[in-house]
Amino acid sequence: MIHLTECPRDAMQGIHQFIPSEEKINYLNALLKVGFPLLDAGSFVSPKAIPQLADTKAVFNRLDFSGTSTKILAIVANVRGAEEAVASDCVSFLGFPFSVSETFQKRNTNSTILDSLKRVEEIQELCVAQGRSLIVYLSMAFGNPYGDEWNEEIVFHWARQLNAMGIKFLSLADTTGMSDPATIQKMFSALIPDLPGVTLSAHLHANSSEIVPKVKAAWDAGCQHFDTAIRGFGGCPMASDELTGNIATETVVEWCKIEGIATGLNMEMLQEAQLIADHIFLRYK
Q1: pLDDT digits 0-9 by tens, 85-111
Q2: How many other β-carbons are positioned within 10 Å of the β-carbon of residue 54?
Q3: What total number of domains does the chain contain?
Q4: Coil, strand or helix: which one is 174?
Q5: Which residues sit opposite 204 in a β-bridge?
Q6: For residue 135, which of 90, 198, 52, 61 has the smallest C-alpha distance?
Q7: DSSP of 47-103, one letter per residue?
């Protein structure tokens, strides 16, 4: 079975017009009915950095978990945000963006790589104490457009170091759409057997024609966990580059149907969620 994490947070965070909280609540409640194992639904990052998600706490308080087993993930960038996240009863997973690029780490979380490593350690301790799980996103995992040194061994080094700190969930994040199928397959083929106790996921960006080749490359290498977003909306607002979109959920679902790979999703509810997504993301810019 493939495990799809739906990412409405990633889809919404770069939209400049503020999406009313009621519309976010309606959309997230629709997604909860689809049956995704995990919903990347909000952010406890400073509202100055991500104003679109300043209402995350209020939105989370209005979610309807009746009849769903979907868990909620919230992104944090420091200990303060992590403390806010664990104070929300519905948050099971915290996500921290850890870049192998010094330039992008400063840009994304206003800290160096080493400072961010300390933050990860503190947030991990908080998660363990509060019965939550931490997912660390290794951003710039497939290349670096900012001029910092990049190679696969750098990515492997930080993945191993994070695992040594007790991190059991790592996501190789494309961030700027630089990945290609060959590199994707090589990275996952090396890391999955190297980190047997870790759940490795793929957070990729792609144009529509690239989605299936990239997902297939990771799947063939043993990756079973993927971040997707309905219609492929979204991207990282901290990256100045004109980004390709997220991996489109419906494209992956269709590929899984052709390949006979189970998703565990309710297709009727997915179609309803797509209609709401179209209303939101074609209306707000």
Answers
A1: 999 999 999 999 998 888 888 877 778
A2: 17
A3: 1
A4: coil
A5: none
A6: 198
A7: TTT-GGGTTHHHHHTT---TT---EEEEE-SSHHHHHHHHTSTTEEEEEEEEES-HH
Residues 6+ apart with CB under 8 A from 75: 9, 40, 42, 43, 44, 45, 94, 95, 96, 97
State which H helix or E strand residue 231 sits in: none
Neighbours of 161 (CB within 10 A): 12
Q: How many CB atoms lie within 10 A of CB 234?
A: 23
The token pair at 6 is: 């739906």
Give the three-state DSSP class for 205: strand
Q: How far apart are CA 133 and CA 92, in angstroms?
A: 6
Confidence of residue 240 (pLDDT cuts 50, 70, 90): very low
Residue 3 burial class via C-beta count within 10 angstroms: exposed 0-12, middle 13-18, buried 19 and up: middle
Q: Supply the pTM of this predicted model.
A: 0.94
Nearest alpha carbon to residue 75 among 41, 107, 100:
41
Q: Hunting for tokens 């024609």 — which residue is that?
A: 209
Residue whose C-alpha is closest to residue 31's, from 75, 76, 63: 63
* Helices 21-32, 267-281: crossing angle, 10 deg rounding: 160
* Euclidean distance between CA atoms 257 and 4, whole angstroms: 14
CB atoms within 10 A of CB 50: 21
How is residue 42 annotated by DSSP? E
Both tokens assigned to 70: 């979907």
User: For residues 149 and 16, what is the distance between their CA atoms, to the nearest angstrom?
Assistant: 32
Whether residue 84 has pLDDT greater than 70: yes
CATH code of residue 86: 3.20.20.70
Residue 139's beta-bridge partner residues?
A: 99, 173
What DSSP character marks residue 256? Answer: H
**How long is the chain?**
285
